[in-house]
Specification:
binds fe (iii) ion, Ribonucleotide Reductase, subunit A, 24 helices, binds zinc ion, mainly alpha, two-stranded antiparallel ribbon
Length: about 525
């Protein structure tokens, strides 16, 4: 239509991308007359953020919708062509070791649903902001995130034809005990106001911490021969760099609008750094224990991506009055511990997880000892050797009681005191006569800032003990009732296939049958 119109009136100059973007973001906005603007946009003031001039908002990309669809359409075509080739060539057999599949199960149930949550969250944030430029930016990110969720589900669904545990990711995300950690993170952000949501997701998650989420999974996929996952990673990367830039721009815009915004943003930076860091415990464990070929250790990644890059970022933000997030030094003290503490939790509760677990092999323990000279041999190796010994004697051990969870991050209380890695860290707060428990000062602070919000947390262990995690119609009073079996049924976990020890899993047996490899004999190479 536009080309025809342009052809009829050749004297009208074609607008450049920049002008078209200005028309779209400034020209399409209007002030309401028969309803007050505050009634139309009821959510962008209650957090206390003061915006005096929305026109100061500069979208660094100025993408128009037609340009956006064109770019994204081209990326989609490339991605699906590669996925087709991967499937036709039985790419699933090129991975390093079938244990690698468990990182995909973690990703599909723990991360892909977050992309979908981000899609919903940005749609809501966009609706809530009265600045048109910011609304357009949120709209595009909302569509990006929907695409990320779709491409991830589509890519990984191929593996579902061959391996267990990948059949019902969204159902599991909403129910399985440890998946409440990522789920509650996003729901906490989505149930905040629009400025807090954007600070939490665009800035703290996408700008400050995203390298620690996507680098390990995508490089991990590349190292372990999973070209399908590498490809959706690449396809999302250009969106991701747009999101990161947006995250920084949003925070700078808010800070420049009014000095009263600074302490509010600092409080959010502190809160969302800590919540994001706790969520990354799952990634730390994946990097150090679940990738058969390692990319780098969690502690190396933390040093490179947070201590170095994050340090430089916060130096830059100092001129706005923003300092390093509270408890960043605790995260540095914990960098040689959290992956080991987390894999120990999963070895305790692997019978209730949607992926397989295992004790590290001897050469993997050598790698861990090299990467963690101060902690691995003295603190963690004995646990894993004991587990391997129990397994050898046919007594694979799982814990049949349920752990206490942190009220904020929802991770079992297994983290240790910042200055004593042999002592479990317990903190508590009272609210309306009830006692609440926390894994750290960081999580306690978050709770104390908004106790009325976090007392509502849906804690999986509490819910199981209250009888809320059985399939509908379950009668727990019948003789011989097995609560664990009922909970796994409610999760849609196929017992003996999706969960438990890898060495006795059907995934391992199938792999050996299909490839002729003897996994017990072959020690996988550790990079
Ligand atoms: Fe995304
Ligand atoms: Zn916690």
């Amino acid at each position: 239509m536009t080309t025809q119109a342009a052809a009829k009136t050749p004297t009208t100059p074609r607008l450049g991308l920049k002008e078209r973007y200005a028309m779209m973001t400034r020209g399409l906005g209007w002030e309401t007359t028969y309803q007050s603007m505050d009634d139309v946009f009821p959510f962008d003031k209650f957090e206390g953020i003061k915006i005096h001039d929305w026109d100061q908002w500069e979208d660094p990309f100025r993408l128009t919708m037609d340009a956006y669809w064109k770019f994204q359409g081209e990326k989609e075509k490339k991605l699906y062509a590669i996925i087709d080739a991967f499937q036709q060539n039985n790419g699933q057999f090129n991975i390093s070791d079938p244990r690698y599949l468990n990182t995909l199960k973690l990703f599909l149930t723990g991360v892909s649903p977050l992309e979908y949550a981000a899609h919903r969250g940005y749609a809501m944030a966009g609706r809530s902001l009265r600045g048109v430029g910011a609304r357009v930016a949120c709209q595009m990110q909302s569509i990006d995130e929907l695409r990320h969720a779709q491409t991830q589900f589509h890519t990984i669904s191929h593996f579902n034809k061959y391996f267990h545990g990948l059949h019902d990711p969204q159902h599991m995300h909403d129910r399985v005990w440890y998946l409440s950690v990522p789920k509650s993170y996003f729901e906490d952000a989505m149930s905040a106001g629009p400025f807090e949501f954007i600070t939490a997701i665009s800035f703290s998650f996408e700008y400050v911490l995203t390298n620690l989420l996507f680098m390990p999974f995508m490089s991990g996929a590349a190292y372990n021969g999973d070209m399908a996952t590498v490809t959706f990673g690449f396809s999302a990367q250009s969106d991701e760099s747009r999101h990161m830039t947006l995250g920084l721009e949003v925070v700078k815009f808010i800070l420049e609008q009014d000095p009263d915004n600074v302490p509010i943003v600092q409080k959010w930076v502190d809160k969302w750094f800590w919540r994001g860091y706790r969520l990354l415990t799952l990634v730390a464990m994946m990097m150090d224990y679940m990738l058969p070929k390692r990319v780098m250790s969690w502690s190396e990644a933390w040093e490179m991506y947070f201590e170095k890059n994050g340090g430089a970022l916060f130096e830059d933000l100092a001129r706005y009055g923003i300092r390093m997030p509270k408890y960043h030094e605790v995260a540095s003290k914990e960098k040689s511990r959290i992956s080991h503490e987390a894999w120990a939790i999963f070895n305790n509760y692997g019978h209730a997880a949607n992926f397989n677990v295992w004790a590290p092999k001897p050469d993997e323990m050598t790698w861990l000892a090299e990467k963690y000279p101060e902690t691995f041999d003295s603190l963690y190796r004995p646990r894993f050797e004991w587990l391997a010994e129990q397994e050898k004697q046919g007594k694979r051990w799982f814990n049949n009681t349920l752990p206490m969870l942190c009220q904020t991050c929802q991770i079992p209380m297994a983290f240790t005191e910042p200055d004593d890695p042999t002592k479990i860290c317990y903190r508590e707060s009272s609210y309306h006569g009830m006692k609440y428990h926390f894994c750290s000062d960081g999580c306690k602070d978050v709770f104390d800032g908004e106790p009325e919000k976090y007392v509502q947390a849906w804690l999986p262990v509490h819910q199981i003990y209250q009888g809320n995690c059985f399939p509908e119609g379950t009668d727990p009073t019948v003789e011989g009732f097995n609560p664990l079996a009922a909970v796994l049924d409610y999760y849609h976990i196929n017992v003996g296939a999706d969960n438990g020890e890898f060495n006795t899993s059907p995934d391992k047996a199938n792999w050996e049958r299909w490839t002729g490899q003897d996994l017990s004999a072959a020690e996988p190479k550790v990079a």
